Amino acid sequence: MVAAPSLIPRRPGERVKTDRRDGMMLARSDRAGELALVWVPDPAHEAMRDLVRGREQAVAELRRHRQHLQALLLRHGRIWLGKTSWTAAHLAWIGGLAWQHSAHRILVDDHLAAIAAARARRDRLTREIEALVPGWRWAPVVAALQAMRGIALISAVTLVAAIGDVARFPTARQLMGYLGVVPSEHSSGPKRRQGGITKAGNNSARRVLVEGGWTYRSPPRLTPAMQARQNGLLKTVRDIAWKAQRRLCARYRALAAQHKPNPVIATAIAREMVGFIWAIARTAQSGQS
User: Fold this and answer.
1) How far apart, in Å, are the Cα atoms of 134 and each of 53, 91, 149?
2) How many domains does the chain have?
3) Model confidence pLDDT, tens digit, residues 240-269
4) Residue 145 CB: number of other CB atoms within 10 A?
């Protein structure tokens, strides 16, 4: 067993530390059930995590280069009037701009080259993930999670890489706490005070969940892409995904009717998504075994 060192209870004021004392303290804490055990991923799982992190770094690099170029254009009053940015038409417009000084032309071309290189790296790592997932141990869980609205391949791989074996969470609420989407609380006596989410656990998984929560603004429906992702999945998994979509779409409309801020609504939807993710993952793992 591996315990989290930061969560091992310690008495304040202890000045003597020996291996014997540590062993006795760990034995007592284990007997009392006060040790928080850590799930240790195997080398293949850790390798997939590293690959997912590498792709996220590529996405962040692409975003940073785009922001730098956008800031340069705004400083000189060059504003794109099209509907969508960073398309082929937008990049062609940037490349065709006339500049008074050659230094600006050199800088813009350098930014465009950096954006192209970062985009190529992101796409290359995405293709590598798509190629490796079928041979991964958790491939059935990745496929099952894609039955949900707002979760495609990269999102599913990110969640599974962060969660690992979902069977180690007896309840969905424990998984919500692990991912840091439960509200913080500081209550005492008759007063009950709740704040923002705890933001514990993996940042990438939490970001993927919140991004998925925004997709439930529209009424529930099965798009052709979702139907393609659900082909070959267990009927139980498809039923859970449809139940989740109906529930979360209605929940989104109800919170919007209460005039809640959109980020708060998306976070609340993300928290409830974890419950359905927990159910689907357990179903897929039981079917796998």
Assistant:
1) 19, 35, 21
2) 3
3) 999 999 999 999 999 999 999 999 999 999
4) 26
